[in-house]
Write a structure and sequence with these properties.
The chain is mainly α and about 260 residues long. The chain contains ten helices and no strands. The longest helix has 25 residues.
Length: about 260
């Protein structure tokens, strides 16, 4: 941990936090930057995951708040998703200590590549075509199943969780893209905060590092959410596909090569 005394390391964490927060606010996937950065400082893997959850909680809270202020997310419509995501995140955070994750490392790139291919081939996957803002709360059964699965995944691993939320919300509820982004940010904040509580209870969080990176992620998330809201579809769709493909390539290289 002597590496933490180097000012250059804190500067590196700041830059990584800004970029990761920016990406997370729009499409998710910032953990592919922040977690390796923490590992390079000599932080143990489980502690790196816990510390990243602390930082990501800052970023996702800022992004969720920004979308909410622009009336792109209505919390009262998604109470079941909140509950299910919380339960899923608790289960996933506990299971990560009990289950061999090597199989997940092999399968995960294939799942994310599948999302990228679906987004490329389906014109309505990441678009506002045939979408509308819901007039009432979507079915609780859909919310519950989606929240439980994605909450557990984020507590267990997490890479690409924003992409999973965005695509699945658009498909399940026919939400406009910015509303899907707002829902994704609110739910990832829920799962991040829940997983943080579990990791903190297990003593797997470097609080000073997480707070520093979290403040930088918060700034990056604010900028990213503002860009997404201002520039809309022409900005989000190509960036979404680029980031998803980058996540898939990164995970595939680490797992298979």
């Amino acid at each position: 941990m002597e590496l933490l005394l180097e000012p250059s390391n804190w500067a590196l964490l700041a830059v990584i936090g800004l970029i990761a927060g920016f990406i997370d606010a729009i499409v998710g996937g910032g953990g592919l930057l922040s977690i390796p950065a923490l590992l390079t400082l000599g932080i143990a893997p489980h502690t790196a995951l816990g510390t990243n959850k602390l930082a990501a909680s800052f970023g996702s809270s800022m992004a969720a708040w920004t979308y909410y202020r622009q009336h792109l997310f209505k919390p009262s419509f998604w109470y079941m998703a909140f509950i299910a995501t919380f339960i899923g995140a608790v289960l996933g955070s506990v299971f990560v200590y009990l289950i061999d994750t090597r199989w997940l490392e092999k399968v995960l790139p294939l799942l994310i590549i599948g999302i990228a291919i679906y987004s490329l081939l389906s014109p309505n996957a990441i678009s506002d075509a045939d979408c509308q803002v819901p007039a009432q709360s979507p079915p609780a059964q859909k919310q519950g199943l989606q929240g439980l699965i994605l909450g557990a995944y984020d507590g267990f691993a997490g890479p690409g969780i924003g992409a999973f939320w965005t695509v699945s919300s658009g498909s399940l509820y026919k939400l406009p893209l910015l509303h899907s982004c707002g829902l994704a940010r609110a739910m990832t904040f829920t799962s991040n905060l829940t997983a943080l509580a579990i990791f903190g209870w297990l003593g797997q969080v470097q609080w000073q590092i997480g707070l520093w990176m979290g403040l930088c992620m918060m700034l990056g998330s604010f900028i990213g959410a503002q860009c997404a809201i201002k520039f809309g579809m022409p900005f989000i769709r190509p960036l979404f596909i680029l980031i998803v493909l980058s996540i898939a390539a990164n995970l595939a290289w680490s797992a298979w090569f």
